[in-house]
Amino acid sequence: MGVKAGEHNLRSKVRTVIDGAATGLAVLATVLVVTPLVAIFVYLIYKGASSLSFSFFTQIPKPEGEPGGGMANAIVGSGVLLAISSAIGIPIGTGGGIYLAEYGRGTKLANMVRFTADVLNGIPSIVMGLAIYSLIVYRQQHFSAFSGGVALGIMMIPTVTRTTEEMLLMVPQAVREAALALGVPNWRSVISITVKTASPGIITGCMLAFARVAGETAPLIFTAFGNSNWSVNPNQAISALPLQIYIYAISPYDDLHRLAWAGALVLIVLIVAAVSLVRYVTSRGVLKGAS
Amino acid sequence: MNANVPEIHISQAQLQPEQEPPSGQRPAEESAIRRFLLSRGNSAIADRGFSWLMLLCALSIFGIVVLIAAELVQRSHLAWSNFGFDFFFSRFNNPITGRPNYWDPVNGHFSALPFIYGTLVSSFLALLLAVPLAIGVAVYLTEMCPQVLRGPLAFLTELLAAIPSVIYGLWAMFILVPLLREHVNPLLIRVLGWTGFFATDNPTGLGFLAAGVILAIMILPIISSLTREVMTAVPHSQREAVLALGATRWEMIRMGVLRNARIGIVGAIILGLGRALGETMAVTMVIGNAPEIRRSLLSNGSTMASVIANEFAEASSDLHLSALIEIALALFIVTIIVNALAQLLVWAVTRGAPARVN
Known about the structure:
The complex is a heterodimer of chains A (291) and B (358). With 291 residues, chain A is an all-alpha fold. Chain A has eleven helices and no strands. Chain A starts with a helix and ends in a 7-residue tail after the last helix. In chain B, helix 4 (113-144) crosses helix 11 and helix 11 packs antiparallel against helix 12. In chain B, 46% of the residues are buried. The two termini of chain B are 30 Å apart. The radius of gyration of chain B is 25 Å and the shape is flat. In chain B, a hairpin with a 6-residue loop joins strand 1 and strand 2 (100-101). Chain B is mostly helical. Chains A and B meet through helix 1, helix 3, helix 4, helix 5 and helix 6 of A and helix 1, helix 2, helix 4, helix 5 and helix 6 of B.
């Protein structure tokens, strides 16, 4: 009897120890994950802030070897590219989402569209860049901001579509029927009742897609290509912040490395601001749960 | 404890009455009044027009994917007709040095083998490092973490996903690679040099290991957030049942949660793999970009994505361009398969579950 009790005691002790060890490992894993994140941010802020200056926002890159210069053209270029991509990605994305939620519910076609959107989401960005290169740049025989915008816009579509659909599905059926009962045409009820009700969630999706493509470099290498001069012409090669960071990072000059860090800081501040804004808005709104 | 703990069948239909009914049976839309209201008078034309417009948007998603595939197939035709399937397996011997040579744009020899090897090695390394950590984080956040920390920690790991690839690359180039070069690599060579995986011939710190580490950091948030999602989808009754049998917390997690969520976790891992396969910028910046197959994890290599990013702008001959596009096509097909598989697995577990709660 005594032996048995001892054995039992031992076993429960072993179990407690294993439990503690597992907890410890999970905590360790979390610490290990948070460490690189903190390291990245600390270095980014430290290196970026020390290289950031007023001229960074106002000047264009100087020729190689000369000190100074900034990324004003890259910031504006990113703005142009993102405007083009939003103009393409957001309407098509929301339209697709509205179709999936309002018209195609439960149909085979909707399932196929949903699957295709997931496929599109999974295509590596470099492959997207190459495809747009051969679709547009190769035919036009020159690089252009437009082609870069198209590449980024296409990458926005799946995120926007899926969040739009998800958010619209959360709108109660009764709201739609109430609108119809008041004699509102269906299209009008979709736009001003259903979509409007779900709009915080839809905007979240758009912002997330926006934040995602804002940092993309790979699809721009062969489409927007980069430009060391001022350009806002959609038909010409244009500079973009992530692209410029890449070009400077792989260059051999210390000056340019510093500019790359400064650019990275600006980029990450923009993206984190967008993501936090989204989180703040959705955590207060009625429609939570955007992913 | 028993091997056949029942699989979860989550049906939260009673929680969310407005969720769509099972496919095949149309929702309540078809009631007679509704049909009457929809078919009335002049709004019918506008309605039809609007629905067609939306359908067009949805179909354009199809169109885009088909267009991309068609374009890649068409442009890679030259390489395909020159090399056929050998493109993915063959190697050539350099007549001067006598060493195997895989990728020689000057002499028109192209073989994707070193890039396939590089992609597989770096992705596998990334999974090896990321999976245990990601599951650890997910377990901690869903089951152990005090409520106060849960939100901020979840936000932090999500932030990792929001950092652009190029910034990871920048950080890896200037912080991670020197760290590996000065401290980690010498240690690995001293302790594990005898395995042949850690050779001394590359003192730069670049290479497969650096690429694997940075990829691991990048795919971690994807794996851990999806794992969290499938773990939250496990019903509470499962946890309570295991606890009621006197299990410790870890036993509860192992038997009640992880076992039930395992299919979804595998899906999350595969999704992470899909991301790792196609990741470009950060890898290009740290892998060293040499079209070679080496056993040592510390030597320079190249992945399918990195060779495209690196050489496409400078490709001179049509055959070189076409070969690069064929690599892109291969990457495209592989990622579609991997992602479809992952979606299927994740969907099998989270189907019908409510939206993620952070």
